């Protein structure tokens, strides 16, 4: 864990103050978070369903990413009545639902520009 007085921590706080985009990218950034949100929106809302959809993610990383998305109120856990052991479904909050069209638009942008295609000015 880095110190709050470190240059990185100071720069991060500054960037978050001048533009909310930086805060948003911190919340959904990383290798798996956007795909997890998208997968949950498509109905893959249990741990094992997410593992099946994202076979290369480790259990530990998936668990950590789910906790982080829950901490940021993008998802929440809904208990499954009668499930043994105690099962949960991951559901999108309204904040998470608002994120899905943005992720789709970023995906489309990536299809057009992220593959090294020439950008015309």
Automatic annotation (TrEMBL):
Family matches, as InterPro entries: HTH_HxlR, WH-like_DNA-bd_sf, WH_DNA-bd_sf
Ranges for domain HTH hxlR-type: 19-118
Keyword Phosphoprotein in record: no
Domain of life: Bacteria
Keyword vocabulary terms for this entry: DNA-binding, Transcription, Transcription regulation
PANTHER family reported in the protein's UniProt record: TRANSCRIPTIONAL REGULATOR, TRANSCRIPTIONAL REGULATOR, MARR FAMILY
Protein name: HTH-type transcriptional activator HxlR
